[in-house]
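Thread: Newbie trying to understand structure tokens

Hi all, I'm a second-year student working on a class project, and my supervisor (Dr. K.) asked me to get a predicted structure for one chain before our next meeting. I've only ever worked with sequences, so writing a 3D structure as a token string is new to me. If someone could post the tokens and maybe explain what I'm looking at, I'd be very grateful. Here's the chain:
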Amino acid sequence: MSTYLSNNDRFQPINLFEYEKLAKDHLSQMTLDYYSSGAWDEITLQDNHAAFERVKLRPRILVDVSERNLTTSILGQPLQLPLLIAPMAFQCLAHPDGEVATALAAASAGVGMVLSTMATKSIEEVATASDKFPDSLRWFQLYIHKDRGLTRALVEKAYKAGYKALCLTVDAPVLGQRERDRRNEFALPPDLHLANLATISGLDIPHEKAESGLFTYFAQQLNPAVTWHDLEWLQSLSPLPLVIKGILRGDDAVRAVEYGAKAIVVSNHGGRQLDGAIASLDALTEILAAVDGKVEVVLDGGIRRGTDILKALALGAKAVLIGRPILWGLAVAGQVGVSHVISLLQDELNLAMALSGCAKLEDIDPSLLRLPRL
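---
Reply by user tm_fold:
Sure, no problem. This is what the structure looks like when written as tokens:
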């Protein structure tokens, strides 16, 4: 298990919340606000984790849990535990190694990584790093830009570099209003750039007076006219399976399957888009019922403990995405910090399974849960 000791006080974080506290000492206020903020009043941001607290566990007893198996697969690829790192932009704001450090930590732990379109390390750099681990699982997260040639180029680069799926974010036709970013006039420092977009088309995050540069970028570059029919064009660009991220309704999940999605990520964008949207966990049951096993379903949003992963799996998710805590680990100790965050979640899930009477992931089912009364 990877460990980290603070150089100042030899403090050893023992959970993700402690990593968050430590990260505040390693990040500028602008970066901290960018990573941690949600849209408007941040109601959905807070509710993502609160939803897990509303679900209670009903453990089984007198089950042989002397050995536990946390392995699974997603889209046919093996995972050492049911976890992927969510796509997150601008990771070099947290640490100079940025997405490369995150990719190395993910690959060495046997979990997946989804690389953001808005990465500060290139598609190729991340691929080269994680290819040191032959079974590494990486997807490429995509926004459809107004410039379709740019979108095509990104897909072609990801396919050539060995990414295993395209993860299309569909909940951001425009960017949600994150007031902390607006107040800070968020922009990248001069030495950081959008590693792929700047290379292909010279695009970068602008500096805007009294506004978030990211908000302006989305308004200028991303295409709010994208519809379901554009998925056919996107899938024509490569043989990569399509994952749709950002679904919160059963009817949308059904349409995603009809239009060729191979997996769905139930997500409200970490509470950063439509404030007041339901928590991801609260949307999961409806979506699972709607797709009826036709595709794999992954949950994104609010995971902070191994028990949260257990609850998501018990409801029927195949795996979960973890976001902000990875950034806290990256800020505190680079690759070592990310590895430690992953190992903390692995240890907590392992323990939660033992205490719930589950020796393997297949033993985790809805009978373990008491859901809140509506």
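A couple of things are worth pointing out once you decode it. The first helix runs from residue 16 to 23. The mean pLDDT is 95. Feel free to ask follow-ups in this thread.
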